[in-house]
């Protein structure tokens, strides 16, 4: 049995409007332990702040009811009692004011099915495997910036930037087709059975045929966002992680947002799955959602240890070296909130401008099948039913959710490590959709009309 973890503490670099970083323990019994953070990083007297940056404050300052917001604690604790999640961090801000940042339960409760005698507590500094939230907080961010700068258009054909993509009937596929999951690319295949690095993954994608006629259907596809990352790299001559660090995360001082976290940070990281049993079953069992002709035993790289700081997604980890457009990003709730506020501000944060408000509006408005470019719209199963029609967000397979509502200037970030509780009897993982929906509805209930 092999256990990997990263521990320690490094102060995050995000710039907020106030001061200290104490943490307090409340209620402290086992799974129900809650860590509340008042917390944002200290800033030096030289730092200049503006009204569009996040600041600590009270619910009252944001015109919200504090008692109603406090009921979120019961919602999360109930999910832990029901064994949906071992732990979580919930971050809520309205009108640039942080009204809640709370850690619950454990960052790691199990190691390969064995409950730890001393589980590792969750903190507000814990870094999470974001899974498919990578699609919108990494890849889509880069594409929005390139569109805003006039480097690309969503109407450009993919083959303009990746010429070999044109093989097998894909010559007409555009960037918009990829962003809206309407390209015709298949949703998923285990590239790592044959591809051993990112170059071979690109060759694999270039050789793929279309599964359906472009634009006639919407099938959520990891391959679409892997391809978008390769487009970005072709244009910028930088690897995806390097470009994002230079152009987005670095300027916003998001120091805890990164790829390949186990290798690149000393911060605590939430544990996820016990190896990759879910993907093994995806290949082995044709009734589990996918038909894969290969035998999973032809792959000799299956991880047999609890994942901490290694991306859960097999295509990202095994074949894409941990850096991919569909999955691979790690971050904290507070870092994501800086990027979230940037979007709620229309593309700016402090004196940093990432993209134009017009481009942001386009990407977060209905395009095809009532969904945005990269962004999901009106998904009640995790957004609840109280949000405005301007709301956009996304989820990740590891139990992560981000929700942004420009009309209310609200962001709701719910990060969990649900996979560390293990699989259900049917091989699936518990859904955090209801948890997210309940938290979201409670946030809107707390807003004073």
TrEMBL record:
Region spans: Disordered: 22-63
Keyword entries, A-Z: Hydrolase
Gene3D superfamilies: DD-peptidase/beta-lactamase superfamily (3.40.710.10)
InterPro entries linked to this entry: Beta-lactam-related (IPR001466), Beta-lactam/transpept-like (IPR012338), Diverse_Enzym_Activities (IPR050789)
EC number: 3.1.1.-
Class of enzymatic activity (EC top level): hydrolase
Keyword flag Hydrolase: yes
Chain intervals with Low complexity compositional bias: 28-47
Beta-lactamase-related domain mapped to chain residues: 72-424
SUPFAM superfamilies linked to this entry: beta-lactamase/transpeptidase-like (SSF56601)
Pfam families per record: Beta-lactamase
Molecular-function annotations in GO: hydrolase activity
The protein's name in its UniProt record: Esterase EstB
Gene that this sequence comes from: estB
């Amino acid at each position: 049995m092999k256990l990997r973890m990263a521990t320690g503490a490094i102060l995050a670099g995000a710039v907020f409007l106030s001061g200290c970083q104490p943490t307090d323990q409340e209620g402290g019994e086992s799974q129900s332990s809650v860590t509340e953070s008042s917390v944002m990083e200290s800033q030096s007297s030289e730092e200049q702040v503006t009204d569009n940056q996040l600041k600590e404050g009270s619910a009252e300052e944001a015109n919200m009811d504090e008692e109603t917001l406090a009921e979120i604690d019961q919602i999360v604790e109930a999910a832990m009692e029901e064994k949906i999640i071992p732990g979580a961090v919930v971050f809520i801000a309205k009108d640039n004011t942080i009204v809640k940042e709370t850690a619950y339960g454990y960052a790691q409760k199990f190691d390969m099915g064995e409950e730890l005698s001393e589980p590792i507590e969750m903190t507000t500094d814990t870094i999470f495997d974001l899974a498919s939230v990578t699609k919108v907080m990494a890849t889509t961010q880069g594409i929005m910036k390139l569109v805003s700068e006039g480097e690309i258009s969503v109407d450009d054909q993919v083959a303009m930037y990746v010429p070999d993509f044109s093989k097998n009937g894909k010559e007409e596929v555009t960037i918009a087709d990829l962003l809206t999951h309407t390209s015709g690319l298949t949703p998923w295949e285990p590239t790592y059975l044959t591809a051993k690095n990112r170059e071979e993954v690109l060759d694999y994608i270039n050789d793929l045929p279309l599964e359906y006629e472009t634009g006639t259907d919407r099938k959520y596809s990891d391959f679409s966002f892997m391809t978008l990352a390769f487009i970005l790299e072709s244009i910028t001559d930088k690897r995806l992680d390097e470009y994002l660090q230079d152009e987005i995360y670095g300027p916003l001082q998001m120091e805890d947002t990164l790829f390949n976290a186990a290798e690149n940070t000393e911060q605590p990281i939430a544990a996820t799955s016990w190896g990759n049993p879910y993907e093994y079953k995806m290949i082995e069992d044709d009734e589990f959602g996918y038909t894969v002709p290969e035998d999973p035993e032809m792959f000799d790289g299956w991880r047999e240890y609890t994942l901490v700081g290694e991306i859960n997604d097999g295509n990202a980890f095994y074949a894409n070296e941990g850096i991919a457009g569909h999955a691979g990003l790690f971050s904290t709730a507070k870092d994501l909130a800086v990027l979230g506020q940037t979007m709620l501000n229309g593309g700016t944060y402090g004196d940093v401008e990432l993209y134009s408000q017009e481009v942001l509006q386009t990407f977060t408005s209905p395009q095809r099948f009532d969904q945005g470019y990269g962004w999901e719209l009106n998904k009640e199963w995790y957004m609840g039913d109280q949000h405005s029609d301007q709301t956009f967000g996304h989820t990740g397979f590891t139990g992560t959710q981000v929700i942004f509502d420009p009309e209310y200037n609200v962001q709701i970030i719910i990060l969990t490590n649900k996979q560390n509780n293990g699989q259900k009897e049917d091989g699936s993982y518990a859904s955090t959709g209801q948890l997210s929906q309940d938290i979201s509805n409670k946030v809107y209930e707390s807003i004073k009309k």
